[in-house]
Design a protein that fits this description.
24% strand; Rossmann fold; alpha/beta; 229 residues; 12 strands; eight-stranded mixed β-sheet; single chain; globular
């Protein structure tokens, strides 16, 4: 399989998809056309999302066509050269994938070798479940089961920053709660970091150590490069 899983789309003060643009370009290789899945968007239109992604990728000659235009989404995925899945609300993304019955089509296509790029919710979608998303459950999918393309969970936008004087739990505390009763490791992926999976293995693309939380709250830090997850 070939997956490029980004924590986020945009760094503060930068254009949309600017920071991972080189990663995306190299990852796709000669592929210049991809199917885009926009269903994590809830506060703006799928047309606008498609336009935003195309504007970001045009300088590399990459074009996406959103699946919301298709009369047969499963067939569109079957014929895709590559699949891009945007960020937004993970619960809505899963709900729409179920409504359109395209989860298995995506899973089969990626397992057959088609490159998959996701950011934020699009990265969460590749995990066994969506239990480690940061998003509010604004809609109820049939289950928390995701595409199960990777053997670990991802927590995008990971930060250990807390608000002074605020009594809410930190992100690490929340994820430790998950790991207390689940045995699937969680990759805590900070902003501007990514995971690339291909025939050469699983590689962290990160300028800083990335925490992995294991069953029972055991935390390890892994560095940039090939890792065993």
């Amino acid at each position: 399989m070939k997956l490029l899983l980004l924590s986020n789309s945009t760094n503060p003060g930068q254009p949309y998809l600017n920071w991972p643009l080189d990663y995306i370009d190299r990852f796709l290789g000669s592929i210049r056309n991809a199917v885009f899945i926009p269903y994590a968007a809830v506060s703006f239109s799928y047309d606008d999302y498609e336009t935003m992604v195309n504007k970001a990728l045009v300088e590399r000659g990459i074009t996406v066509t959103s699946i919301h235009h298709s009369n047969n989404p499963a067939l569109t995925i079957k014929n895709a050269e590559a699949i891009l899945v945007g960020g937004g609300n993970t619960f809505h993304l899963m709900h729409m994938m179920e409504e359109l019955d395209i989860k298995e089509a995506i899973r089969s296509k990626v397992k057959a070798g088609a490159p998959y790029i996701g950011w934020s919710a699009g990265s969460n979608a590749t995990c066994p479940t969506i239990r480690t998303t940061n998003d509010m459950p604004i809609i109820e999918p049939k289950s928390f089961e995701a595409l199960n393309l990777v053997p670990f969970q991802i927590n995008p936008h990971y930060t250990e920053n807390t608000i002074p004087g605020h009594g809410g739990e930190s992100r690490l505390q929340r994820l430790t709660e998950y790991s207390a009763i689940n045995d699937i490791p969680v990759v805590c992926l900070p902003e501007a970091c990514a995971i690339r999976i291909d025939d050469n293995g699983t590689r962290l693309l990160s300028a800083e150590p990335v925490k992995i939380i294991y069953k029972g709250g055991v935390v390890k830090s892994l560095h940039n490069g090939i890792v065993d997850l």
